[in-house]
Amino acid sequence: DAGVIQSPRHEVTEMGQEVTLRCKPISGHNSLFWYRQTMMRGLELLIYFNNNVPIDDSGMPEDRFSAKMPNASFSTLKIQPSEPRDSAVYFCASSSGQMGSPLHFGNGTRLTVT
Amino acid sequence: GENVEQHPSTLSVQEGDSAVIKCTYSDSASNYFPWYKQELGKRPQLIIDIRSNVGEKKDQRIAVTLNKTAKHFSLHITETQPEDSAVYFCAATSYGNNRLAFGKGNQVVVIP
C-alpha cells in the first residue's frame, strides 16, 4: 500500500490567493482527518470525516477554511483567501475507523503564505 | 473535550541512558493511548499504543505504562540511540470516538 498520499508537498502563495490541498487516504480506510501543525500550537485537528461525511469541523479556524470528501478516495482542504498566519504543515491522516485503530499520516503539505 | 499535556518539553539524554516522557489527560472516559514519533521534516508515525485494560506494554526498547487512577501514561525508551532523537507525541481518545487529542510533543535529543 502506498500509504496516505498528499499533494502538493510544498506550496508557496501570496496572501489573498486560494490554496487547495489534496489527500488520498489508504484504500479501505473510512475515516479521514485533516491536521495543522505549527511550533506554537502543535498538532491541531481541523476536521474529520467518517464514510465521506464530515463529523466534527469544530477545529476549522474560520470560514476561510473548507474541506470536502466527494468520495472514499479523495479529500480537499481549501483556504480562501489565504493569510500569512495560515503558514503551517498540513497533514492528512486516515484510519480504518474501528475502535482504537491507529492513524496513518501522509507526508504533509508545507504551506507558506507571503 | 479531552486535554492532553506532555512533560518535559525537551529532554536530552546520553546515548545508552533511558528516557521517560510523561503525559497527563483530563477525560476519565479516555481508554486508548497511542504514542507517535516524528523525525525532523517527516510525518508522525505510531510507535506503540496501550488500551485501558492493561497497565503496561513493551516492544523491544520502548514501553508504555498507564495509571488510570492518576490519569497519566508514560513512554519509556531504554538504551537510547541517536536514531531515537525525534519529537514524541502522546494522544488520548475514547472508544467509539475517532477524535485523537494530541499533546504538544516532547523533543528528545540523544547525545552520542
List keywords for this structure.
heterodimer; A: 114 residues; mainly beta; seven-stranded mixed beta sheet; four-stranded antiparallel beta sheet; 0% helix; B: 112 residues; six-stranded mixed beta sheet; five-stranded antiparallel beta sheet; 54% strand; globular
Structural notes for this entry:
The complex is a heterodimer of chains A (114) and B (112). Chain A is mainly beta and 114 residues long. Chain A is 0% helix and 54% strand. Chain A is built from no helices and eleven strands. Chain A has strands at 5-7, 10-13, 19-24, 31-38, 42-50, 53-56, 65-71, 74-79, 88-95, 104-105, 109-113. In chain A, strands 2, 4, 5, 6, 9, 10 and 11 form a seven-stranded mixed β-sheet that branches. Chain A has a four-stranded antiparallel β-sheet with strand order 1-3-8-7, with no helix packed on it. The mean pLDDT of chain A is 94. Chain B is mostly beta strands. Chain B is globular, with a radius of gyration of 13 Å. The relative contact order of chain B is 0.35. Chain A binds chain B through residues 31, 33, 41-43, 45, 48, 50, 55-56, 91, 95, 97, 99-100, 102-108, and chain B through 32, 34, 36, 42-46, 49, 51, 89, 93, 95-96, 98-105.
Per-chain topology:
The complex is a heterodimer of chains A (114) and B (112).
Chain A lengths: L4 E3 L2 E4 L5 E6 L6 E8 L3 E9 L2 E4 L8 E7 L2 E6 L8 E8 L8 E2 L3 E5 L1
Parallel strand pairs in A: 2-11
Antiparallel strand pairs in A: 1-3, 3-8, 4-5, 4-9, 5-6, 7-8, 9-10, 9-11
Chain B lengths: L3 E4 L2 E5 L4 E7 L6 E7 L6 E7 L4 E4 L2 E6 L4 E6 L8 E7 L8 E2 L3 E6 L1
Parallel strand pairs in B: 2-11
Antiparallel strand pairs in B: 1-3, 3-8, 4-5, 4-9, 6-7, 7-8, 9-10, 9-11
Q: Helices and strands of chain B: which structural class?
A: mainly beta
Indicate the multimeric state: heterodimer
- Give the biggest sheet of chain B: 6 strands, mixed
User: Which structural category do the helix and sheet elements of chain A fall into?
Assistant: mainly beta
Biggest β-sheet of chain A: count, sense, barrel? Answer: 7 strands, mixed
- State the order of secondary-structure elements of chain A, H for helix, E for strand: EEEEEEEEEEE
Rounded radius of gyration of chain A (Å): 13 Å
| Helix residue percentage of chain A | under 10%
Rounded to the nearest angstrom, the radius of gyration of chain B is 13 Å
Q: Could you list the spans of chain B in which at least 5 consecutive residues all have pLDDT below 50?
A: none
The end-to-end span of chain A amounts to 36 Å
How would the global form of chain B be characterised? globular
Distance from first to last alpha carbon of chain B: 40 Å
Averaging pLDDT over every residue of chain B, what do you get?
92
* Secondary-structure element order of chain B, N to C: EEEEEEEEEEE
Strand residues, percent of chain B: over 45%
The portion of residues forming beta strands of chain A comes to: over 45%
| SS summary, helix count of chain A | 0
Number of strands of chain A: 11
Shape call of chain A: globular
Overall average pLDDT of chain A: 94
